[in-house]
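Tokens as discussed.
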């Protein structure tokens, strides 16, 4: 890029001298502190490329990138970043940190006049480049314009290490499985087997098994590898319940044989997918006895954990029916659904002239 006429460093110094924050609106008369899009890309590439952000949780990594951007552009780093739209109002841009080509924009359509700063990092967590595009450019990559809807709730830890939120299963399940204390693992070898009433552990019996996982740990494969982390947890759960093998077909619920969904939580935000846990809608064609399993019948096992970047350690265990889910884990307030726009970036997206 030819920067001789734009004097990028002079713009940065002007911003620094102005005392403005990233949240202040720009006075149109102060055009000396407005950064043109091509210059913004140049400055951020020059300052951020090569920075290492290894083994950081996603939110921490996002915050660190915003701090580096503030410093690169001459803005003071705020004590905390506000959830404004866009995230950097003073220069009218949002930021996204990408290890994959799947760009996700939450709760809004692409804004044509906004800038989008997309930071690329490699598998080791090192920033390899920055691309800045306008909404006008980005909208051409959005082939559907569809917002994928996603319910979310919040996990608020308490002092207890293990909580059984629903002491009993929902009424239809309770009538089917009372008195069952164990499963014959010499016969039942897979957690993906269709549920059978005589093999369906009551929720309190399940809880007595699962609470033993408090303090258990497994290797951390990286914060961007949520599915692989989840598989490691599922494996532990299957071992604890006595299954001879571990299987995961990626379908809901995770352990079909016990009508149980397993969730690993390293943050308070619980992603719930497209259907609320307390819904009375059927779960596909899943049945036990003559009962059509509903979402509210599903048992949700939540494992609250932390990680040091190398090992994930389970700190708390929660078990509830979908029916009672929101009595303990409040659904996000302010909007019923969180939505995301998913855009597939091309392999050449980060190649610049």
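Sequence:
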């Amino acid at each position: 890029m030819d920067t001789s006429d734009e004097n990028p460093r002079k713009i940065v110094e002007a911003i620094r001298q102005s005392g403005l924050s990233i949240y202040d609106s720009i006075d149109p008369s102060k055009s000396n502190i407005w950064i043109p899009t091509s210059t913004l890309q140049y400055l951020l590439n020059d300052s951020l490329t090569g920075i290492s952000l290894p083994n950081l949780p996603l939110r921490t990594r996002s915050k660190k990138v915003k701090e580096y951007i503030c410093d690169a552009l001459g803005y003071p780093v705020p004590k905390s970043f506000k959830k404004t739209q866009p995230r950097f109002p003073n220069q009218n841009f949002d930021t996204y940190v990408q290890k994959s080509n799947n760009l996700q924009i939450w709760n809004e359509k692409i804004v044509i006049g906004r800038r989008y700063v997309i930071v690329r990092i490699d598998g080791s967590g090192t920033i390899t480049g920055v691309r800045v595009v306008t909404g006008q450019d980005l909208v051409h990559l959005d082939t559907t314009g569809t917002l994928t809807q996603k319910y979310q709730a919040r996990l608020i830890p308490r002092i207890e290490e293990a909580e059984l939120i629903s002491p009993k299963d929902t009424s239809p399940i309770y009538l089917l499985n009372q008195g069952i204390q164990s499963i014959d693992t010499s016969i039942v070898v897979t957690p993906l087997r269709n549920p059978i009433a005589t093999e369906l552990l009551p929720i309190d019996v399940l809880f007595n098994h699962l609470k033993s996982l408090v303090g258990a740990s497994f290797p951390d494969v990286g914060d961007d590898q949520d599915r692989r982390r989840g598989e490691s947890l599922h494996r532990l759960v299957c071992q604890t319940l006595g299954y001879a093998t571990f299987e995961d077909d990626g379908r809901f619920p995770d352990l079909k044989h016990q009508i149980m969904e397993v969730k690993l939580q390293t943050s308070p935000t619980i992603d719930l997918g497209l259907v609320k846990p307390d819904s009375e809608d059927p779960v596909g064609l899943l049945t036990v006895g003559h009962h059509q399993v509903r979402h509210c019948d599903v048992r949700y096992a939540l494992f609250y954990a932390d990680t040091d970047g190398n090992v994930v350690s389970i700190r708390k265990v929660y078990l509830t029916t979908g029916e009672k889910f929101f009595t303990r884990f409040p659904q996000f307030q302010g909007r019923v659904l969180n939505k995301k726009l998913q855009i597939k970036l091309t392999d050449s997206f980060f190649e610049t002239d």
